[in-house]
């Protein structure tokens, strides 16, 4: 299995995942606020395939579904690292951890109802109003 590896801004947290086939963009208000951007780019993988070196800090909140959303981030530099949701088969690894050229096209844009009026859905991506 081919993998990709990346790290937070300061290098204290390193991650390795299987090379993804696509990415998912999330426009939920929680992703906007935690990343300081209008959407987050995520590589969705099975948690058992996520290898993390270092100890991320966590922020736990209630998501749109009413279930916990756990945001893992570097406690030194603040970089978002990965997010877990109620579905135990998925973890959302933040694409910005990886070097340019390793991120595939978006397959979907989640919470697209929160997109700015001047934004458009990326070509080939499914528009999902909620998750």
Automatic annotation (TrEMBL):
PROSITE patterns: CENP_V_GFA. Gene3D superfamilies: glutathione-dependent formaldehyde- activating enzyme (gfa). One of its GO terms (molecular function) is carbon-sulfur lyase activity. InterPro entries: CENP-V/GFA, Mss4-like_sf. It holds the Pfam family GFA. The keyword Lyase applies. Belongs to the Gfa family. This is CENP-V/GFA domain-containing protein. It comes from Kwoniella newhampshirensis.
